[in-house]
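SUBJECT: A protein chain and its fold
Encoding: whole-number codes for local backbone shapes
RECORD BEGINS BELOW THIS LINE
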Amino acid sequence: MKRFIYLFPILLIVTALSISCGSVSSATGGYSDEAKVELVVGNHKPEKVTIIIDKEEPIMYDALNVNQPRDKRVQLIIKPGTHAIKVLTADGRMLYNQKIFVSAGRIKTITLYR
């Protein structure tokens, strides 16, 4: 029993020193500094559209049907915040013209209807 009384404090000290030594690891949480936008068509077949984000260069985009699985959809990566989005059909008709807000690490789905 006396041996245990002497060994116990030594074990505590060794344990405390071994825990405090070694590599320092830290975990950072939160979302990456990007957001995603995807376009789907609600009530008709998939179609090619042109999307304009914040008056930048137009992007050709294949808008899939809303029933398509998410992993098949193309997602555009943009910065989080407020953006002006315009979507035009192949013949130049406006399908969508709104300002949207996208949060960091989130996917904003825009559903297009004719």
